[in-house]
Design brief:
Family: Belongs to the sodium:solute symporter (SSF) (TC 2.A.21) family.
Main location: membrane
Membrane topology: Multi-pass membrane protein
Largest sheet: none
Low-confidence stretches: 344-357, 482-496
Strand content: under 5%
Protein name: Sodium:solute symporter
Distance between the termini: 58 Å
Subcellular location: Membrane
Mean pLDDT: 84
């Protein structure tokens, strides 16, 4: 294992070095939170693919393949579909808004007062997303070093917190590009073909396994529908995803770069399912499907290659973890803390002056604080699937309707948006307590309750002010100067 250890140590050291280098570039709020909005197509595509394909997509995707066969690809497949939908239909408009958070978009669209409540829901989602990725370190480091679970979480989490705190989005972007390359080589080019060969090829896999393992719909239509609701729609509205859209150099980059990343996700989904299916042939009686990835890596890969594939798993986990962490800190600072203190920031870019440097320090401090909270929560929580389900149920049930409604329906009002967030969020929590966290009913009925509240309250309250809508349309089209939205949000700002 010495060679494998060396590969992992070099990889982790490289992540920290990237963080240090990124710190030298992150000299303004824009540089720190959205990489100066300067990413070109290649870097944008790589980093977007890296953040959406995390530990759940890699370790969990292989586990679903082990349990259900090729239809186990549906979870990651719906993530790719969501990214494609976001990129084709919404990303160009989102990039033109020039904001930092989803809540700022809601304030622009509805004229203010939606920020804090929506920010709390988004913060809960990003926190739990970061927690689920951090828990996954325990699986990987257990294979590598037979390490205690708590120590593994602290070690992996500390490295992510360190490079994220140092350089913000620039550090995360640089590390994500490395992680994207490592993940592509480790999972797609090495583990996939080796697993299929070790299992005897596809003909032997078909001979050894039940026919339902090769049924594209074997996982069940209801499960697929739930995946679409949670993951496809979740991709459309998550702060972690939008914050990457904000890094694009242009709306064209956001659209086509995201399309490439979404297509990559579809290939990654199929690869994970095939690897899991091969693991089922090789190890038919594992204690848990989630052990399939670690087992096939540990038992079937040669020295050196094993280290690279485990580095790929670490890359998958770290990319999602760091993206969720900076999103969580951005929401906590900009949408909750600053507003509660009465410091309402205009969603426009400002000059790189002393105030900008102070904002960098403030956002850096929040990443550190949120990082410590994520590590402590990950130690306390044991079930990754439940934590991830809570995160996406809150996101979709509370925020999907007001966000998409604001983008496509001009009659929606701020009161309708607030009602949708509150009713949908509370309904999801109550239904999870009633039916269970992993049940399908919470997201189904929570989403319907949110939609009903949005429509009823919007029709029952005065339409959004024409000046606010005019400023929104100009901003959405990319024609308005970046300072203009401040005028539209000033009346709402004074009322917060």
């Amino acid at each position: 294992m010495a060679v494998d250890y060396l590969v992992i140590v070099v990889y982790l050291a490289g992540m920290l070095a990237m963080g240090w280098w990124g710190m030298r570039r992150a000299r303004s709020k824009s540089e720190f939170l959205v990489a100066g909005r300067r990413l070109g197509p290649a870097m944008y595509s790589g980093t977007m693919a890296a953040i959406v394909l995390g530990g759940a997509s890699t370790i969990g995707g292989v586990g679903l393949g082990y349990q259900y066969g090729l239809s186990g690809a549906w979870m990651v497949f719906t993530i790719g579909l969501g990214l494609l939908a976001l990129s084709v239909f919404f990303s160009a408009r989102i990039a033109r808004l020039k904001v930092y958070t989803v809540s700022e978009m809601l304030d622009l669209r509805y004229g203010g007062r939606a920020g804090v409540i929506s920010g709390v829901v988004m913060w809960a989602y990003t926190l739990m997303l970061a927690v689920t990725s951090t828990i996954a370190y325990a699986t990987i480091f257990d294979v590598l070093f037979d390490m205690n679970r708590t120590l593994a979480i602290v070690l992996g989490g500390s490295i992510v917190v360190a490079y994220s705190t140092l350089g913000g989005m620039w550090s995360i972007t640089l590390t994500d590009m490395v992680q994207f390359v490592v993940k592509t080589i480790g999972v797609l080019l090495l583990l996939l073909p080796i697993a299929v060969v070790k299992a005897g090829g596809f003909s032997e896999m078909k001979a050894q396994l039940p026919t339902e393992y090769f049924d594209p719909l074997g996982i069940g239509g209801e499960t697929i529908f739930t995946y679409v609701l949670i993951y496809t729609f979740g991709m459309l509205i998550g702060q972690d995803i939008w914050q990457r859209v904000f890094t694009a150099r242009s709306d064209t980059t956001a659209k086509w770069g995201g399309t490439v990343a979404g297509t990559y996700c579809l290939a990654y989904a199929l690869a994970g399912a095939v690897i899991g299916t091969a693991a089922k042939v090789l190890y038919p009686k594992l204690g848990s499907p989630d052990d399939a990835f670690a087992t096939i890596v540990k038992e079937e890969l040669p020295v050196g290659v094993r280290g690279l594939v485990l580095a790929a798993a670490l890359a998958a986990v770290m990319s999602t973890s760091s993206g969720a962490l900076i999103a969580c800190a951005t929401v906590a600072n900009n949408d909750i803390w600053s507003r509660l203190r009465g410091i309402v920031k205009a969603p426009a870019e400002s000059a790189e002056n002393a105030e900008e440097h102070d904002e960098v320090k403030g956002n850096r401090a929040f990443i550190l604080i949120m990082g410590l909270a994520v590590i402590c929560t990950a130690i306390a929580i044991d079930n990754v699937v439940e934590a991830l389900t809570v995160a996406y149920n809150l996101l979709v049930g509370g925020l999907l309707v007001p966000i998409l409604g604001g983008l496509v329906w001009k009659r929606g009002t701020v009161h309708g948006a607030l009602a949708a967030v509150v009713v949908g969020g509370l309904a999801v929590v109550a239904l999870m307590a009633t039916y269970g966290i992993l049940a399908n009913e919470p997201v189904y009925y929570g989403l319907l309750a949110s939609l009903a509240a949005y429509l009823a309250v919007s029709f029952a309250t005065p339409a959004t002010d024409a000046a606010v809508l005019a400023a929104w349309r100009e901003r959405l089209a990319g024609r308005a100067p970046e300072a203009e939205p401040e005028l539209a949000s000033e009346p709402a700002a004074t009322s917060r």
